[in-house]
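#onboarding

Welcome to the new folks! Below is a worked example of what a typical request in this channel looks like: someone posts a single protein sequence, and someone else replies with the predicted structure as tokens. Don't worry about understanding the tokens yet, we'll cover that in week two.

Example request:
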Amino acid sequence: MRALIWNAASIVIATLLLAVSCTSGSDPSNAESPQGTTEDRAATRIVPTNAVNEIDPNRTDYFNVSQSETSTLEAAPDCSYESDNRLIIGGLLPQTGKLDYLEPAQQAAIQLALDDIDRAEGVTGRDVIYLPGDSGSSGSTLVAAQRHLEEGADVIFGPPSSVLSKQVTSEITGSCRIQISSANTAAGFTPLEQNQLYFRTAASDELQGQALSDIVARSAATNVSIIAEDGLYGQALAAFTTTALGNANIEVAQTVYDPTAVDFNAAADSATATSPDAIVLIGFEESSQILKELLRRGITTDKIYLSDGNAGNALGEKFTAPNELDGIRGVLPGAEAPSPFKRRLNQLDEDIVDYSFSPETYDAIVIVALAAELAQSDAAPEIAKRINGVTSGGARCSSFAQCKKLINGGETDIDYNGISGPLSFSSNGEPTEATFAVVEFG
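Example response:
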């Protein structure tokens, strides 16, 4: 048995859909917000750039963050459609655009998951069909999502961009189909508002706030200043981080700044007014200007912590003095891809160098397949009713084949712990456990 990867079925359909998307009263290509997007978080790339200030991979550490939930409720979608007993997954990956560097590893992870599923005789005894699609822009994402729905996809995987994802979520879930992403980290994805058909294997910004609090607390800081950009991303992550620090009995002062400002002196003055033990900087590209102001005011690098919007080598390229950022730390969501997993990905694509979100991608496909196997159906509502339960409680298993063997033996309560580690989905259809990388310039 072999997974089937179908290319676009009809140029005519795609052309018609493009016409529809471009006559809706706005230009989809210009619809992306400058705040809170995964594109803005492209700074998190830690692939070497040969700049004089880079993240030192030898100093990178990984740790788990978890949140307790007394009980997890399964999704209960209030919609239905006729099942054809063949699971079809439509992909929305950035084949083009600013995030195209994520596509090779995610595409290989999808293929690897499909291969492993097929080796275990598929889902409900049949192979899984995968439909490729591009999420390089608003327009291409909408076209691909609509095409997948036309072609009978039960599940839409992606896109990695939170903003692009939100632009197609209503279309997907409103069609009684599942959407699952391995890289959406932004706040605001509420399954109850999306027919309880939206899921993600990526850690939310709420967990990132806990992760930031944890690494700051390690330094024994008692007085922390948070500087956050005045956008959806900055406001939400600052609130989550403040709550977590408060729970650790750490005093917090917040400074909010306009990311389009020309001068950031006032923000730096406000953030340093309380003589903080540590400063958490939450922002995007403009973070380099604020960082320069903090360093000018004598804040030492060991007191500065970055979020996933700015913790990367793109930030280091804005500084020309060697080792100027040494000691600055930050957190990035995403599990470390184990070496055997990387080797398997490279067997499919030897040119992969960035493995970001590939463990979460593999796990997303396996989780959907296991839920479909438990349901003995490819119908999205039936699959959705079992997704949360597949990731928590019950008999533990770590591969599709192992979990399917338990199901075939009569076990109806399994706990899949995958490549990205334990996930333990909440009632919101997202991990309550996740892995973060602590990165450091050096």
